[in-house]
């Protein structure tokens, strides 16, 4: 559990660094005097870095090792945190966000891979869930830190604290968990699979003895790893070619699932909820507290999904999630339509204000207990063995790009019409329900060899 938790700190940083920008957006806009298009670019550019980091992480891990790759990711997190804390121009901040994204992408790939390779088979599923749990915890802690810094600054994120503005402290605070990740990555053991790959069998035996216990059949385990490595052939992208628009149909199912997971607008909540609530009259500190409460709901929903995904199945959770998201997003759209300007300030009072708050949190809950966890479970098991790794990389890339598109367009769309923007997300939630009903098959209880 210690080794898996240490590796999952990368997931914590993934969630933390992805969401910490939420509290700093208003401060960045005011400090650099930029509009919604520029701020959307700065927030979203980290996602392009994430796609690049995820693309290269596997090859780096096979060459340098799993723990060394974690150390590199942690170092990039640390350096980018300092850079984001001390930018001298908006383009400079964007470059540091891009570097942070590379680290996020590396951590998103290497953490689950390392845990799967080190964990005993009997506990692999539960230990593997540490990654997703760490992500939602990282989001929650970043919101709490943002709220604390905002309160320290008297509710004004551009207020000077020790020579720096409050939003700069928010971005720089990521240095602390980054250094913790680096420290743990220096002491946890290397993956036994990688050690066998580079010919260090005795060290692999020692690691297996540490994590699986003295009574494990170490000779058999080493023989299994060696046999898999001899027989393994890395899948190529050419293996995914098929008759449906150039790809195998099951790959398209994975791509569309990934796209719908983002097109319902979930990351708008975690990247822009501070701006969102301020745009309808909530104070800066109050908006950050609301964002933190949404993160707690996200954690609760994640635990619900972990408890139910193997009991009631993947499809029922996805269908329930889609229906709940569609209804809550529609209510939010209706409520935001009542926002109006009074004495130069936008307000959303009375029933519409309460409805918007409740609907946003209900949306987060339904997403967390369904699409937030289940899509990753499906992507890991729905593809045939011979194409699983390549198909998963394509689907994950589609998810990063969809995330980037939603993130970069939200500031401009919400400035144009916030109510219609949320109505658009509601439409995608309805379409996701239709897609699951017709194209997604249940994988509960099926062996991986049966997929395809």
Automatic annotation (TrEMBL):
Highest taxon, organism lineage: Bacteria
Keyword set, alphabetical order: Cell membrane, Membrane, Sugar transport, Transmembrane, Transmembrane helix, Transport
Regions that span the bilayer: 39-58, 70-90, 96-115, 127-146, 166-188, 244-273, 285-309, 316-336, 356-379, 391-413, 419-440
Principal localisation: membrane
MF (Gene Ontology): transmembrane transporter activity
GO CC annotation, single: plasma membrane
Bilayer topology term: Multi-pass membrane protein
The keyword Transmembrane helix is assigned to this record: yes
Entry keyword annotation includes Cytoplasm: no
Domain Major facilitator superfamily (MFS) profile: 3-444
Subcellular location: Cell membrane
InterPro entries referenced in this protein's UniProt entry, alphabetically: MFS_dom (IPR020846), MFS_sugar_transport-like (IPR005828), MFS_trans_sf (IPR036259), Myo-inositol_Transporter (IPR050814), Sugar/inositol_transpt (IPR003663), Sugar_transporter_CS (IPR005829)
Family designation: Belongs to the major facilitator superfamily. Sugar transporter (TC 2.A.1.1) family.
Protein name, per record: Sugar transporter
């Amino acid at each position: 559990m210690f080794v898996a938790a240490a590796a999952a700190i990368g997931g914590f940083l993934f969630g933390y660094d992805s969401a910490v920008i939420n509290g700093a957006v208003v401060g960045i806009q005011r400090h650099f005097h930029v509009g919604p298009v520029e701020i959307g670019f700065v927030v979203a550019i980290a996602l392009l870095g994430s796609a690049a980091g995820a693309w290269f992480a596997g090859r780096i891990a096979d060459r340098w090792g799993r723990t060394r790759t974690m150390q590199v990711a942690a170092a990039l997190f640390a350096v980018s945190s300092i850079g984001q804390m001390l930018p001298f121009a908006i383009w400079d901040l964007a470059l540091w966000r891009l570097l942070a994204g590379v680290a996020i992408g590396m951590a998103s790939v290497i953490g689950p891979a390392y845990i799967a390779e080190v964990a005993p088979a009997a506990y692999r599923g539960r230990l593997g869930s540490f990654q997703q749990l760490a992500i939602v915890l990282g989001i929650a802690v970043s919101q709490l830190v943002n709220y604390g810094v905002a309160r320290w600054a008297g509710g004004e994120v551009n207020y000077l604290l020790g020579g720096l503005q409050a939003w700069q402290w928010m971005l720089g605070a990521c240095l602390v968990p980054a250094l913790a990740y680096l420290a743990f990555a220096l002491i946890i053991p290397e993956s036994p699979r990688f050690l066998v790959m580079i010919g260090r069998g005795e060290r692999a035996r020692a690691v297996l003895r540490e994590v699986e216990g003295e009574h494990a059949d170490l000779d058999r385990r080493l023989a299994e790893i060696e046999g898999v490595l001899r027989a393994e052939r890395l899948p190529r992208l050419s293996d995914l070619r098929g008759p449906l628009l150039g790809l195998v149909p099951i790959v398209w199912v994975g791509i569309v699932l990934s796209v719908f997971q983002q097109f319902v607008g979930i990351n708008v909540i975690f990247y822009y909820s501070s701006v969102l609530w301020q745009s309808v009259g909530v104070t800066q500190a109050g908006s950050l507290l609301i964002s933190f409460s949404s993160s707690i709901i996200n954690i609760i929903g994640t635990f619900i999904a972990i408890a139910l995904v193997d009991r009631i199945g993947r499809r029922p959770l996805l269908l329930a999630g889609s229906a709940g998201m569609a209804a809550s997003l529609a209510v939010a759209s209706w409520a935001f339509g009542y926002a109006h300007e009074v004495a130069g300030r936008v307000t959303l009072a009375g029933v519409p204000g309460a409805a918007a708050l409740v609907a946003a949190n209900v949306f987060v809950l339904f997403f967390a207990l369904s699409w937030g966890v289940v899509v990753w479970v499906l992507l890991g098991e729905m593809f045939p063995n011979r194409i699983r790794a390549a198909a998963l990389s394509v689907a994950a890339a589609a998810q990063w790009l969809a995330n980037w598109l939603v993130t970069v367009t939200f500031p401009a769309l919400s400035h144009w019409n916030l109510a219609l923007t949320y109505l658009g997300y509601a439409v995608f939630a309805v379409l996701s329900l239709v897609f699951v009903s017709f194209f997604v098959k249940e994988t509960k209880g099926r062996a991986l060899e049966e997929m395809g």
